[in-house]
Write a structure and sequence with these properties.
The chain is α/β, with parallel strands linked by helices. The chain folds into four domains: about 120 residues, NAD(P)-binding Rossmann-like Domain (Rossmann fold, 3-Layer(aba) Sandwich); about 80 residues, Alpha-Beta Plaits (2-Layer Sandwich), CATH 3.30.70; about 150 residues, NAD(P)-binding Rossmann-like Domain (Rossmann fold, 3-Layer(aba) Sandwich); about 90 residues, Alpha-Beta Plaits, CATH 3.30.70.1450. It has 15 helices and 22 strands. The chain has a six-stranded parallel sheet with strand order 3-2-1-4-5-6, sandwiched between helices. Strands 14-13-12-15-16-17 form a six-stranded parallel sheet, sandwiched between helices. It has a five-stranded antiparallel sheet with strand order 7-8-11-9-10. Helix 1 packs across helix 14, helix 6 crosses helix 9 and helix 6 crosses helix 14.
Length: about 475
């Protein structure tokens, strides 16, 4: 598979690195000389230091043989024009454009092809979706959802009083009321694919697969009950903050906008009147717009970094704080301080993946990486094998992938125990019709099954070949 990426910023670089690690061929086009030189030194791929809207530059990057073209520069117009140019001149590549402008995003561009662009993805929308999913599930952990909507994966950190501590997995599975599976354990700087005899240490981060009811039962036993949030503070009224507020308040109109896609995510999280939502932003003009947009919410024009401001907000009476400013450092520190003042839960938006580890050590409940959610959305499109969902674990070293099997797949009609899966690859469950089933060795894979696996990034190319036949 050959992919051409326009834009070597954070998203372009992260996407390219992940695809290269999977064994795919990648070319990057970057107009900035210093950025292009830096990427060339760090990644094993072709780098073209030219303007990406030039047909000559596209040909130098090998667009004529590309399977996909992904434009992720900082400029929406450049991304759309570049994708339109590729679509008009070359038949083969799937075209994907990053579009972050709120005005573009509120049109029907996201639902229908435009300028020949196959997919338009908004990083702010993807981040807002992740935040709303977390709110819906109590802001206790990351949440992985799948097309079947029966099973979920959530992560749990083993504390000093955890029922898991020091006990083998097979014993725990007999004790709990609902069936569950521990997909992977993150311990220090490595991961463990557990067996029945695996025991758990304090501070292990475990990813648990079960039904919503099963996960609720486990978290209740771990004294981490599901939380409903009536009083929410939203710090940052920018693009992501606006999308999140729309999802929480549910005041959007039936205008075909992206918010129609949020309804399934906000069925429990939303507060229709918004009277218990407090939005804080330091920009006066922005606050004025927010106050008009959300008349039932409290909008405060303040800089949360000013001394004493957070204390004056009486945050100890709030259930949740969500920080979505453009500064990931301020998001993390504001959430940490708010929790110290008594806020029940905290969700912070970050850009770099390593900030998620820092936030975890600082006792934040959930961090959402804007870049990672965007990259995962792109990977879901360009990968072979009917990929439905992609979720990264452990800095992307591991991935949980959902795919469907068609008549061409080489694994059809074979029991799992006879399929030679790559090392450290685990089939978690499959959905067949209305049934969702935990995987076992005698299970035979059939056409139209939806299968969810855990695998290493390096094994993805082999998995794709197995799926596609």
């Amino acid at each position: 598979m050959y992919i051409v990426i326009l834009g070597a910023g954070r998203i372009g670089y992260q996407l390219a690195r992940q695809l290269i690690d999977e064994g795919k061929n990648v070319a990057l086009i970057e107009s900035d000389k210093d950025t292009a030189r830096d990427v060339l030194a760090r990644l094993d791929c072709l780098v073209v230091n030219e303007n990406g809207t030039s047909l000559e530059a596209l040909k130098k990057a090998g667009i004529q043989k590309a399977d996909a073209f992904v434009s992720v520069t900082e400029f929406d117009e450049v991304n759309m024009i570049a994708c339109g140019l590729v679509s008009s001149e070359f038949e083969k590549p799937v075209t994907i454009a990053r579009v972050k402008n709120v005005d573009y995003s509120r049109t029907k561009l996201l639902a229908y092809p435009f300028l020949g662009i196959d997919y338009i993805i908004n990083p702010e929308i993807e981040a807002a979706k992740a935040i709303l999913r977390s709110v819906e599930n109590g802001a206790r952990s990351d949440v992985m959802l799948f097309d079947n909507k029966t099973f979920q994966i959530r992560d749990l950190v083993i504390g000093s009083d955890s029922l898991f501590l020091g006990r083998p997995l097979q014993e725990l599975r007999q004790e709990f009321k609902y069936e569950f599976l521990v997909a992977v354990i993150l311990r220090d700087n490595y991961y463990i694919i557990p067996t029945g005899t695996t025991t758990f240490n304090e501070n292990d981060k475990v990813y648990i697969l079960s039904t919503e009811e099963g996960l609720k039962h486990i978290f209740e036993r771990e004294k981490q009950d599901h939380r409903d949030f009536d009083r929410i503070v939203l710090v940052g009224g920018g693009t992501v903050g606006t999308y999140v507020a729309d999802g929480l308040i549910q005041e959007d109109k039936e205008d075909g906008s992206f918010m129609e896609k949020f309804k399934s995510l906000t069925s429990r999280a939303g507060r229709k009147k918004g009277s218990n939502l407090h939005i804080i932003d330091k920009n006066y003009d922005k606050c004025k717009v927010l106050a008009e947009r959300y008349p039932n919410a409290l909008v405060t024009c303040e800089d949360v970094t000013d001394e004493g401001i957070l204390e004056q907000m009486k945050l100890r009476h709030k259930d949740l704080i969500i920080t979505t400013t453009n500064s990931q450092e301020m998001n993390v520190m504001t959430s940490v301080y708010a929790k110290a003042l008594g806020v029940g839960g905290a969700i912070s938006l970050v850009t770099r993946k390593n900030y998620r580890h820092i936030a975890h050590r600082l006792n934040l409940d959930v961090t959402i990486s804007r870049n990672t959610t965007m990259v995962n959305s792109i990977l879901k499109i360009i990968r072979h094998g009917n990929i439905k969902n992609v979720h990264a674990i452990s800095e992307g070293t591991l991935e949980v992938i959902e795919f469907s099997l068609d008549k061409e797949s080489a694994v059809l009609g074979k029991p799992l125990k006879e399929i030679k899966l790559p090392k450290n690859t685990l089939v978690l469950f499959l959905t067949r019709g209305e049934d969702t089933i935990f995987a076992h060795g005698d299970m035979v894979l059939n056409k139209n099954d939806h299968v969810v696996i855990l695998t290493e990034r390096e094994s993805i190319q082999q998995i794709e070949r197995m799926i596609a036949g």
